[in-house]
Every structure is written in structure tokens, then in C-alpha cells.
Amino acid sequence: MATIMVLNGPNLNLLGQREPAQYGYETLADVESMCREAAQALGHEVDFRQSNHEGVLIDAIHEAGRGVKEGSVLGVVFNPGAYTHTSIALHDAIKGAEVPVIEVHISNVHARESFRHHSYISPCAAGIVVGMGVHGYVMGIQGLVHKFGR
């Protein structure tokens, strides 16, 4: 049974209270429970993390890459938050670690401000789930298992 890392970027710790019209009322703890249930139903465990710090996210991606090579990690479901639009370093970490990543966004970033239309993560992601609310995490887990499951 391989672990799926679910990685959350900046401000996602504020889910449920930050702009609920945009992001909904579910908390990050609710998302974690959903992810654990979805992964367990598919025979996997979840390593669920959130950080507001880019370097911590990079370190987690490197760790996941090592786990993929060892066979203990299947890949990463990643909501990079605002770092989506700014972080070449996260892009480079994903490519360098050679880790399968499903990029997830709760809102439809393409229907929002123009600066949110570009992603540095998408070109190195194995798949993308956008605008499906927090259910997008479940879809990301399902997609990762479907594409890379073992």
C-alpha cells in the first residue's frame, strides 16, 4: 500500500473562513478527512500537509520523490495556492524529484483574476483538477491512483 501525499500551500489553513463564497465552508480538517476516506477506499494511506512556506513545500516534494523511487509513495495531490502563479522553484522541485503530481484548485482559477490564469505547476503536473470545490481533492486522489496505481 503506497502513501499519497496531499500537499497544501499558503492560506489553505484558512479554509472555511477565508472567502467562503469562493472556497466554501469546509475546513482543511474536513478536506483531510475526505482525502483519508477516498484514499482508504482505494487501498492507500494519506500523508496530509499544509505550509505557508515555499521551502517547506519544496522539501515535502523532494521527500515524496524519494518515496516514489523507494516504492512507498504513489505521488502528490497538490494545491499550491497562490504559489501556483509565482513559484518556478516548486515547478523545478516537481521536475527534479520526478514525482507524479495532480494539481488541484478549489475554485476555477480561469474564471478569476487574470494573474491566476497562469500556472507554473501545470506544465509539470500529470493532471489538473480545477473548480470542483474541495471534492477536487478526491478527484485528484482517484486520478493519481488510476494513472499511477500499483
Automatic annotation (TrEMBL):
Pathway: Metabolic intermediate biosynthesis; chorismate biosynthesis; chorismate from D-erythrose 4-phosphate and phosphoenolpyruvate: step 3/7. Substrate binds at N79, H85, D92, I106, S107, R116. One of its GO terms (biological process) is quinate catabolic process. InterPro entries: DHquinase_II, DHquinase_II_CS, DHquinase_II_sf. This is 3-dehydroquinate dehydratase. It comes from the Bacteria. Pfam families: DHquinase_II. Belongs to the type-II 3-dehydroquinase family. Homododecamer. The keyword Amino-acid biosynthesis applies. It catalyses: 3-dehydroquinate = 3-dehydroshikimate + H2O. The gene is aroQ. The record marks R18 as: Transition state stabilizer. The active site is at Y23 (proton acceptor), H105 (proton donor). It is an enzyme of class 4 (lyase). GO terms for molecular function: 3-dehydroquinate dehydratase activity. Keywords: Amino-acid biosynthesis, Aromatic amino acid biosynthesis, Lyase. Its EC number is 4.2.1.10. Catalyzes a trans-dehydration via an enolate intermediate.
